[in-house]
Structures are given as structure tokens and as C-alpha cells.
């Protein structure tokens, strides 16, 4: 990930994730992130695995579904039977004994998250599901589990835990993330439906868009207040394109650019806000909305823990 190629808003979002100050010039934000221990640990882990930390460019230059961050540069001679047995043993730890098809289901996935030492709502689980090419949310079949473990060059849960920095890197890289984001639509929707339920889409956007959509909180609020319909695949995909292509001040937004109606209406809404309040005030409003939601999440977690 090339921090210097990212926009200030994206850098500020990364700072927020790491618990760092989000104000300052671009160079200051880059230096702040590079000095963060968590960021340094991720970079060190990827370097140890032979993975470049460079920016891989736009989604248009990357074949959908491909991933150059899965592969380690130092491969040992393979013992395929031993590998399959080890992966089977890892799968068996979490397998649902009552499922008709050999699979890991809800309780097993929660146990897997515990073993990986991550929260079940951690976005990295979507990157893992994408690696497995899982067909349905809440289910990992044996073949899907094997596929993901092979792609990540893992044989045990300990191996998989060690690869989490690789998956987190994918979530921050635009090209890799675009593949994961596109996958998430089909993975999350009801298999019998063509579209995604609105509330589920809003929850996923909240989880996925930090660092990829400058006006995420304003967008979520606007969708809740102005949309009563489901989310089509076209809208889902173009939301990310909008976040990646349109400047925070919307100076390069073209009302004739063939965006979905909801995005056109949102752009008009944001332009009106920026005209009335000024860009800086609206940005502060966005940051304030994010902070309030974070506090609400913390309060909810405290109640659950009690």
C-alpha cells in the first residue's frame, strides 16, 4: 500500500482506525501512520512472507478474482497428502456435526473467529470468505475451506492467523479490495433474490467503506432517509466507483455521468451542503458523525459485556 498515493480523507480514516489524530497535512498523516506499531507489524509480516507493500494500481488493471498477495516467495517442496490431512484436521475442529453437507456453520464460524483471535464482525472475515469463494454467508463447505487454505498457503489455524496481515493488506489496497467488495454482494444476499436487502447493504457499507468512500456517514444517513428499496448489484458496484473516482469536494462530479439515480441525488444533496456550509464544515460534520457512531458502538459493546 503506497500511502503517498492516497487522498487525505483516506489517510485520516486509517488514522482513525489506528486511534491516531486525524487532523494535519497529508505528509503528517503519512508519517503518523508509518510510525504506528500496528501498521509496522503488518508491513513486517508481509515482508517476511515475501509480499510487496507497494500500491498495485487501479482495479481496471487487475484481473477480477486474481491476487498477487496470496503467494509467498519461498515455497517448500509439497507433500500434498500431508497438507490435505492437516487442512481436514483444521476443518474438523469447527465442522457442524448436524449439517447435511460437510460444512462449518454459524457456531463453528464464531469458534473459528475465536481461534483466529478476531471479532466475528471484523471486515477481514470478508477477505477470508472471498479467498474461499464461499457461496453463502454463514457457511463454509469443506471444499471452500480447502480452497481458501490452499490459496493462502495455510495448513493450520495457526498458519491462517499468521496470514491475517495479508488479508488486511488486501482490504486497504484498491485493486484487491474491489474484488472483495464485488464478491461480498453475491455472498451476502439471499440466494433466492437478485438484490441485497437495504439494511444489510447499509451494514456492509458501514463495515467496508472506511478509507474508500469519503462521505460514508453522510451516504449511510442519506440512504436510510431516502431509499425504501433493495440494493441492486449495479448500485452496489457503482457506490465503490463513486467513492474512488469522485473528489471529496465533488468538483469532478458530472451529473450526466450515468450514475444510478440514488447516487445522483446524493451528489446533489452533498453539493448543496457544501455550498451552504463550506467544505471544511461538512468534513467536520462527517468526522463528528463517525465519532458519535463509534461511541454508540462502544456503549453497545459495554452493555453486551455486562
Structural class: mainly alpha
Per CATH, what is the topology of the largest domain? Recoverin, domain 1
Assembly status: single chain
Number of helices: 15
Strand order of the largest sheet: 1-2
How much helix is in the residues?
Answer: 55-70%
What would the average pLDDT be, to the nearest integer?
84
Largest sheet composition = 2 strands, antiparallel
Strands, count: 2
Our measurement of the CA-to-CA distance between the termini, rounded to an integer number of angstroms, reads 39 Å
| β-strand amount | under 5%
- CATH domain class of the largest domain: Mainly Alpha
Contiguous uncertain segments of 5+ residues: 54-73, 295-306
H-E order: HHHHEHHEHHHHHHHHH
Total number of domains? 3
CATH architecture of the largest domain: Orthogonal Bundle
Shape: globular
Radius of gyration: 20 Å
Q: Write out the CATH superfamily name of the largest domain.
A: EF-hand
Describe the structure.
The two termini are 39 Å apart. The protein has 15 helices and 2 strands. By secondary structure, it is mainly alpha-helical. Helix 1 (8-17) runs parallel beside helix 2 (26-34) and helix 10 packs antiparallel against helix 13. Mean pLDDT is 84; it is low at 54-73 and 295-306. It has 3 domains: 3-53, no CATH class; 54-188, Recoverin, domain 1 (Orthogonal Bundle), CATH 1.10.238; 192-305, Recoverin, domain 1 (Orthogonal Bundle). The chain has helices spanning 8-17, 26-34, 37-48, 80-92, 106-116, 124-132, 142-151, 157-162, 164-172, 174-188, 198-208, 216-226, 233-245, 261-277, 279-305, and strands at residues 103-104, 140-141. Helix content is 60%, strand content 1%.
Amino acid at each position: 500500500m503506497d500511502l503517498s498515493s492516497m487522498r487525505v480523507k483516506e489517510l485520516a480514516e486509517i488514522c482513525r482506525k489506528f486511534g491516531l489524530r486525524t487532523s494535519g497535512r497529508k505528509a503528517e498523516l503519512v508519517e503518523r501512520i508509518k510510525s504506528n506499531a500496528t501498521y509496522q507489524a503488518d508491513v513486517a509480516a508481509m515482508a517476511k512472507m515475501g509480499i510487496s507493500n507497494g500500491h498495485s494500481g487501479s482495479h481496471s488493471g487487475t484481473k477480477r478474482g486474481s491476487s498477487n498477495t496470496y503467494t509467498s516467495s519461498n515455497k517448500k517442496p509439497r507433500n500434498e497428502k500431508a497438507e490435505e490431512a492437516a487442512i481436514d484436521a483444521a476443518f474438523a475442529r469447527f465442522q457442524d456435526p448436524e449439517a447435511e453437507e460437510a460444512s462449518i456453520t454459524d457456531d463453528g464460524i464464531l469458534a473459528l473467529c475465536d481461534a483466529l483471535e478476531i471479532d466475528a464482525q471484523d471486515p477481514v472475515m470478508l477477505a477470508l470468505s472471498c479467498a474461499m469463494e464461499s457461496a453463502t454467508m454463514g457457511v463454509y463447505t469443506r471444499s471452500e475451506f480447502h480452497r481458501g487454505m490452499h490459496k493462502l498457503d495455510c495448513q493450520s489455524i495457526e498458519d491462517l492467523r499468521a496470514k491475517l496481515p495479508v488479508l488486511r493488506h488486501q482490504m486497504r489496497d484498491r485493486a484487491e479490495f474491489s474484488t472483495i467488495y464485488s464478491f461480498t454482494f453475491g455472498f451476502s444476499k439471499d440466494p433466492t433474490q437478485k438484490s441485497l436487502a437495504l439494511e444489510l447493504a447499509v451494514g456492509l457499507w458501514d463495515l467496508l467503506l472506511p478509507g474508500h468512500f469519503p462521505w460514508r456517514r453522510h451516504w449511510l444517513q442519506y440512504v436510510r432517509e431516502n431509499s425504501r428499496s433493495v440494493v441492486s448489484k449495479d448500485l452496489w458496484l457503482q457506490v465503490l466507483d463513486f467513492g474512488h473516482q469522485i473528489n471529496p469536494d465533488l468538483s469532478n462530479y458530472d451529473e450526466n455521468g450515468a450514475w444510478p439515480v440514488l447516487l445522483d441525488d446524493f451528489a446533489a444533496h452533498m453539493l448543496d451542503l457544501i455550498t451552504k456550509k463550506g467544505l471544511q464544515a461538512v468534513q467536520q460534520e462527517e468526522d463528528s458523525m463517525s465519532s458519535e457512531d463509534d461511541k454508540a458502538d462502544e456503549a453497545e459493546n459495554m452493555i453486551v459485556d455486562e
